[in-house]
Amino acid sequence: MAFSLPDLPYAKGALAPHMSEETLDFHYGKHHKTYVDKANGLVEGTDFANASLEEVIMNSEGGLFNNVAQIWNHTFFWNSLTPNGGAPSATLQGELEKAFGSVDAFKEKFTNTAINTFGSGWAWLVKTADGGLDVVSTSNAGTPMTSGQSALLTCDVWEHAYYIDYRNARPKYLEAFWALVNWDFVEQNLNA
Ligand code: MN
Question: Which of 34, 48, 102, 162 is deepest in the core (most CB within 10 A)?
């Protein structure tokens, strides 16, 4: 089973002005696609050739892990965004308040985690094995499922995610990120 580049859930220009079409051209059309192409090359002719993406992520390491985890992380990231960002529902708001005190406190913790992730990586809202919510950072291609956590929301903090629109200013990118968060997706993941 070859891995494929999933369609974006919106047009490439739909996230502007917060995230430009040029960023999507590179980030989705080149970076994400390259992970797919490399992973397909690496699994060809191996025991992983017919495995699901999740199976390969959970059972690989090194270059193969990096490429398959990045496929999954990017697909999850695109689904974490929407041109129609708004606010969490009353239900989700209640869950965030229970875990972090307030929605603003959650956003502050997530933003700080994203900004302070050293080098390339990801910030995540996750459901932990005991059912609680937490904010975590992963390095490079790291992904929560290998720690027994379920991803609810992510922000890609690799420089390729923001360099075209915000140059080195990761905090400005995070401000834009909050305008794009797909809270319905977060809630679906919470209820899954
Ligand atoms: Mn990326």
Answer: 162
What percentage of the chain reaches a pLDDT higher than 90?
99
Domains defined for the chain, CATH in brackets: 21-79 (1.10.287.990), 90-191 (3.55.40.20)
Q: Helix crossing, 103-115 with 170-180: angle to 10°?
A: 140
105 pLDDT above the threshold of 70: yes
Kindly give the distance from the C-alpha atom of residue 101 to the centroid of ligand 1, in angstroms, as a whole number: 30
pLDDT tens-digit readout, 40-75: 999 999 999 999 999 999 999 999 999 999 999 999
pTM for this structure? 0.98
- Alpha carbon of 27 to ligand 1 centroid (Å): 6
Buried b (16+ CB within 10 A) or exposed e, 54-82: eebbeebeeebbbbbbbbbbbbbbbbbbb
How far, in Å, from the CA of 35 to the mean position of ligand 1?
10
